[in-house]
Amino acid sequence: MGVVTSLGQGREDNWNALISGRSGIHPITRFPVDHLATTIAGTVDFLPASNRGASALTFELAHLAAAEAVGQSGFPDSDFAGPLFLAAPPVELDWHHRLSLYAGAQKHHGNKDLIEAARTAHALEFFEESQFATIADRLAETFGTRGLPITLSTACASGATAIQLGIEAIRRGECDRALAIGADGSATAEALIRFSLLSALTTQNEFPEKASRPFSKDRSGFVLAEGAGALVLESLESARARGAEILGIMRGCGEKADDFHRTRSKPDGSPAIGAVRAALSDAGMSEDEVEYVNAHGTSTPENDKMEHLSLSTVFGERIKNLPISSNKSMIGHTLSAAGAVEAVFSLMTMREGVIPPTINYDTPDPAIELDVVPNRKREAQVSTVLSNSFGFGGQNTCLVMAREPV
Predict the structure, then answer these.
(1) How many CA within 13 A on the CB side of residue 229?
(2) Alpha carbon distance 76, 61 (integer Å)
(3) Which domains does the chain possess?
(4) What positions carry a catalytic annotation?
């Protein structure tokens, strides 16, 4: 497994920061924030591609997380020999390319010459940046994956969906191994404006590290962030045969669509409830066997309320004593990458015997009675984890992981 977030590059740096309760959220310096309602984010600013546009940064994030995961797996760096499933954000031409095209067209006869302006020395660069499959194609070539790489975008559930597709490919007997990646480097001014228009982002800019407050009464919206998570998935039989170190077991996956609204969740929470129950059923587990929930926990008023409703419906009174924490309190919402990043953190929770906290939990919400592991890590031997990913557009995907094989 591999991971990159605003907390740092690699498992060790991220894990140490996470269990210390350190926030990676900070003021935006990458682009002007004049007149923006939200001026903070969990951007990854320490990489060479950080100022080269969303596509370039998404590729670098994906590459770094995948390189760490493949390196740990023991498979050859350039001959992985299994399929690739990449969760990535919708692709847009970066602004510096848009302005270049516009300037070229202005020299001639305006908009009708935009296509002619695109036929320049930069034409290939423009084309590749605007193609949804380019990032996966480059990753496939780098790591030597097999078959046509799959790129998917299912909103905030994308990373978990990529993992699910890899698991299902192995189960069907199509391969012994798969590389699943979730990556997102699209914290741009346009993204901030769009999410602000949806009233989804917090505007608590004064103290960035305090802005993400999942499940708190004073939560006011999520914090946009960037990152990547990658998992090398392998059949248990294959892993044992080659003597591989088994980091954890993917027990079950569940997904349910919600056609209620483009951004809002169905008021009764039934799709999220169905996704959790489907994951448990797929894992062959009962509700009582889950020992920790890695919550979607975005810090928006509606999502946190809906997640509480869904979990309390599934787990009943036990929900009050079941540890449930949100990594997003520290790293923000990494969108397409979130499900994969949080799967990595879920596996590390079981391996390290430590539950990361939900920081900034200073004002409990009496309507949401949960053990959110408030503000400080908790040492606990966890053998099973439920990781939730609930996205805009009714994309709900849940993963059940275990420390050891059944």
Answers:
(1) 28
(2) 20
(3) 2-92+130-402 (3.40.47.10)
(4) 156, 296, 333
